[in-house]
Amino acid sequence: MKNKTLSRRTFLAYLGTGAVTIAAASTGLGAFTGSAAASDLLFDRKTGKVTDAFAPIEPGAGDELVVPKGFRHDVLVSFGDPINGKGDTFGYNNEFTRFFPFDDKQVNGLLWVNHASVHPLLALDQRQPGPLGADQVKSLLYNQGASIVEAYRDREGKWKITPDSAYGRRITGYDRVELAGPARGTHAVKGAALVQGTFGNGAGSVTPWGTVLSCEGDFEITCGSAGLELSHYGWVVEADPFDGNFKLRKHTALGRFHHGQLAATLSKDGRVVVYMGDTTPDSCLYKFVSAGKFNASAGKANADLLTEGTLYAADLVNGRWVPLTIEAVKKALNRDDFQVPFGVNQIKEVLVERYKEQADVLVYAQDAALILGATPTDRPAGLAVHAKSGALIAAYPNNIRHGNIHGHLAQLAEQDSDAGATAFDYEIVSNGGRSSGYSSPGTLLFDDRSNLWVASDIPAAKLNQGAYAPFRNNGLYVVRTAGQDAAAAQLFASAPIEATLTGPCFTADERTLFLSVSHPGHATAQPGKPTSTWPHRSGDSGPRPSVVAISGFA
To answer: Which of 17, 107, 277, 378 has the fewest C-beta atoms under 10 angstroms from its C-beta?
Structure first.
């Protein structure tokens, strides 16, 4: 990539087909009206014949991963498997995946996999509540973060890993990670420039320059168990899957909160835009817009673009992106009529003392967003950018406290189809439930035909009962966005007992789908009595979170 400018076509080709979740330039939405039906941008019932049809499966409640007839799945790598010759092993509760091929053949490459959490009994052998022992803390920190494994497809079409690969490595709660951007070295992070490790890594994305952005989601329990400073976690971490010498860095300009899925793209004028969601209830939707412009010839040096720019939160009521600045926060707090907004659990006097400089806004981004009028939502956990329209699709799994049982999909269409705009149109385009065929949408992925792949995230304690009973175990659904079946959800995969299916990723030729099977046996509470034993490997007495490779696509 020698050109300094990057067209939409070149950008998507660079990232590979099947990477539409992480990149789309602005096209085809026409003039912004402020009141047009955004659903027309996602669902097109007149065009787009689907050529990769499959026979949808029925919801299942068994302890198996079920895929349609004509497809196969290979368990590629599981918790505890060796991934290199140095003794490193695959971590727990794998989620986000991304495949980086060695060449255009798409049959050998590196697979990046995030690790979000550990099960206290199944992974740590914690049999009683209370403080963890030293070995348990070591396992807690080691088995989160990320794994980089070498994967290949053999002559029989079966996907495997190279267990002694020179490329295989771990990123854990013990690595040294730089804080980059405005909060580095400030009072808000206790003066730190280097911090210990990364964990709670659920979602992720890929940058235009080929690095991975890994999101720290739930981090408080690990911080408490390991005695680590809270302000050092809840960031977006950048790493290079091919280069172990690339300095791991947490981009503080992107804000600190419980990061869900993110989606990276470019504005019309070439600035980097990163959309972000927060996985906690009553949280906001965010985006970061870089100050500088992407330069393809600069390569990995483009990482510096994520250190300077503007962090926004979405005011869905008024269709505007609210810049999160210290000046605006101070002005709001100093108003005589200021009232602490819903969701902020501090009194005014504490907030006035907290927010002194821009770093404080970034470290306490959620409260700052609410103070400035951003809209609290039912946790925007999944995000994807529609390739044809450039619109952002957000998945809200559920919020039982608000009566939102089955969640919904929403669409945000930027003014003039420009990801760098400060105004947008927003509406819910699909509600979960029996009428739509899915419940609790979580991770999202667009394929190259603009089919939307939706992984459900029904809580383990609610599966197969009450309002969730018709959906049985969690699943992976395909929502057609074109043709006569547009907006209809079809079940492609059904998870084992209590598991979630997450982190779907296609190879660029879309012949293989990598998929994380996370949290199998999540409700296990007694030693020796696991609720699941998937993937049922010889010699195993309990479940193992795993990544599978699904093949059979035309």
So the answer is: 17
Q: Are 359 and 186 in contact (CB under 8 A)?
A: yes
As a whole number of angstroms, the distance between CA 356 and CA 327 comes to 9
Please give the pLDDT value at position 68.
97
Contacts 24+ apart (CB under 8 A), 331-340: 332/371, 332/372, 333/371
For residue 53, what pLDDT is reported?
72
Which amino acid would we find at residue 502?
A: T
Measured CA to CA, the distance from residue 125 to residue 305 in angstroms comes to 43
Rg (CA), the chain: 22
Residue 276, phi then psi, degrees to nearest 5:
-140, 145
Kindly report the pTM of this predicted structure. 0.92
Going from the first residue of the chain to its last (554 residues), give the mean pLDDT of each consecutive group of 10, the final group possibly shorter.
38 37 27 36 45 83 97 97 98 98 95 98 95 98 98 96 98 98 98 98 97 98 98 98 97 98 96 97 96 97 98 98 98 97 96 98 98 96 91 95 95 97 97 96 94 97 97 96 79 98 96 98 97 96 97 89
Report the DSSP pairing between strands 176-180 and 249-251. Answer: parallel
User: In the block, which residue shows the tokens 């994807």?
Assistant: 384
Q: How far is CA 373 from CA 166, 344, 357, in A?
A: 50, 12, 19
Residue type, 505: C
Cα–Cα dist 156/324, whole Å: 54
The rounded distance, in Å, linking the Cα atoms of 205 and 219 is 19
Helix, strand, coil share (%) of the chain residues, nearest 5? 15, 30, 50
Residue 122 to residue 525: CA distance in whole angstroms: 9
pLDDT at 517: 98
* Per-residue CA distances from 108 to 5, 21, 155, 209, 452 (Å): 30, 22, 12, 21, 26
